[in-house]
């Protein structure tokens, strides 16, 4: 485990009492890096929130078990079935025989093209459902932006920590534990970029209806917002992030990178880009 002063990828750090982010990030040229985080709530009945990405499976599992003994894990809350969230689900379930998987009917179905999720270990948790995990009640809620229809976020009313899943996604110049490290311009640009990347449909939204959706989440009054693709938000950056989120229906869509961009990158690399190789760690 580490602190924000000694931040390293795949070294969990505490973001609230007994609540830890497992940070990881992907290089994303030419826009820097994208965080790829997950979370552990080490309460009376420990909860894993998402299971990390398969690209770093051994390292992710080691990081998680540095926070909690896998035999103590009682719950695995899967926000949705995207690879960066569910990629290590089966190894996690194998390592945590005492854990119940909190998921949805549709997520299980969407994962069935790759694996059979053990139904006898599942409990369906839909939007608005609550889960008693011993010393706290967790609330599942749909975050305002998402890139998968099964998505549910998680609010822990004991610590006032909100796991926002793919909402508040941002690129960062370098991986960092806290979004306060971004300049005001980087923060604004990152929220606009990440939001439109995750949810390009934001441009179709009725702005007034969307404000009401955002109100519901902001009314939770979270003290800490952690998410898969964002450094942790606290203090004034939380209100600022909600303000930026509210603007998304009214700004032009993000312009995708084009083949001309790819050609320019390849030319700049002057043939030094190695042929694509399978990742050796996906075992
Ligand atoms: Fe996603
Ligand atoms: Fe994601």
From TrEMBL:
InterPro entries: Metallo-B-lactamas, ODP_dom, RibonucZ/Hydroxyglut_hydro
Signal peptide range in chain numbering: none
PANTHER family the record matches: ANAEROBIC NITRIC OXIDE REDUCTASE FLAVORUBREDOXIN
Organism the protein comes from: Kribbella caucasensis
SMART domains cross-referenced by the UniProt entry: Lactamase_B
Domain annotation Metallo-beta-lactamase: ranges: 35-229
Full protein name: Metallo-beta-lactamase superfamily protein
Family annotation (SUPFAM superfamilies): Metallo-hydrolase/oxidoreductase
